[in-house]
Amino acid sequence: DAMVIQNPRYQVTQFGKPVTLSCSQTLNHNVMYWYQQKSSQAPKLLFHYYDKDFNNEADTPDNFQSRRPNTSFCFLDIRSPGLGDAAMYLCATNSNLGVTEAFFGQGTRLTVV
Amino acid sequence: KQEVTQIPAALSVPEGENLVLNCSFTDSAIYNLQWFRQDPGKGLTSLLLIQSSQREQTSGRLNASLDKSSGRSTLYIAASQPGDSATYLCAVALNTPLVFGKGTRLSVIA
User: Fold this and answer.
1) CB of A99 within 8 A of CB of A57?
2) B40 in contact with A at a CB cutoff of 8 Å?
3) Could you say which of A70, A113, B11, B38 is the most buried, measured as most Cβ atoms within 10 Å of its Cβ?
């Protein structure tokens, strides 16, 4: 059974049109992460939540925002997608930051046209 | 700043061969190291987690070792199969989010 679920699997959006990606987890983990992965590149951390505490990476563009309304759900909002934002977006969880095993969802492939 | 390097970037082997994938990291102060598999267009599947106090972990045909002091890990795959074809990524953490390498793209030829 899937434990980290991302929706949608594929998203096509227009240049400049806001888009939201969602992630849900059934593990009741404290920590949720969003990574961006471009072709043949390492996943790059955008931000993470430890419970309700939001932690933004210094080089994450302001165009990227996140919400975590409860333990189970986390959203990635891209306010004005550019062509350079086309990528795979990966959501992950673990129970204790950097200590326990991390679990990833199936990813959302974002295309910007 | 932690940096993770994986060598080789790509590897092609005939079915049945045993193979080793390498991972190195610059800061040996880690809590754990995790190996993942990624199929094309998919998310990451966790293969093995090695805590910093451990030297190796095994799961089926996979064996991962960790030499924390030298900043190295290896993933050994025994008797490779075409279904093992994927990208393998390693990642390390120290009370922080995982830092990833770029991965090794493995092709196992039938």
Assistant:
1) no
2) no
3) B38
Both tokens of A83, joined, read 């062509």
Name which of B4, B89, B96 is nearest A98 (Cβ-Cβ).
Answer: B96
What pLDDT, on the 0 to 100 scale, is given for residue B5? 97
- Bond from prior residue into B8 cis (ω within 30 degrees of 0): yes
- Residue B72: Cβ within 10 Å count: 16
Give CA–CA dist A62/A73, Å, rounded: 21
Residue B85, pLDDT > 90, answer yes
- Beta pairing class for A31-37 and A44-50: antiparallel
pLDDT (0 to 100) of residue A48: 95
The answer to whether residue B101 neighbours chain A at the CB level (below 8 Å) is: yes
Lowest mean pLDDT among A78-82, B30-34, B81-85, B103-107: B30-34
